[in-house]
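INFO  loader      accepted 1 record
INFO  loader      residues=201
INFO  predictor   begin
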Amino acid sequence: MSTETPTERREAAATRRRWVTLAEVVAVAGVLIAALTLWTNWSDHRANEADKIAAQSSAARERTKIDLSAIVQDGGNTLLLKDARHDLQDVTITFPRALGVSPQRPPAEPIIDGSWVSDAMLKLTDGGSDDRAGRLPVLVSVQYFDGDTTRTASGIYDVIWKTHGRRWRSRAFQLEGLQVRQRGGDQAKLDAIWVKEKPTA
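INFO  predictor   done
INFO  writer      dumping tokens
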């Protein structure tokens, strides 16, 4: 026969309940810690995947980007357009409307030919010094291959030019180089630049 008093039995029951409650708390804490660890691992994995995708996207954008440069040819009569990463397939050169020169699409090599604009530029700068230099903004639109994919790009570039005197009171017009002004652009933007920056006699 038990010698426990009712008070002792109540205290023993309360102690057992406390131990059960403590065990439940420990179990719940363990579940929470496991869940937090799982969440952290999954979150880190997603972050790594996102970083990898961002790096791949950045590399793809860099690979497809056009960076035109030009080689001066024929003593300054032409500029041969080049891009270090791509072969240029088709090029269209658009000039400010006020210059009165229609867009040019060279049939063979991707060039800018000084003869397209020499008369207009010499007329525009006539009456001043024979020796002049400046920049002619043009819109260059190109088609090129990126692997097996055909892509297009455009931008406004400055054609660097100069004039100098010759015998018999005539002047020569020469191309000196090409410099990017902005990626993208259109005829309206090109015309606005020309209004602000065109040379005067």
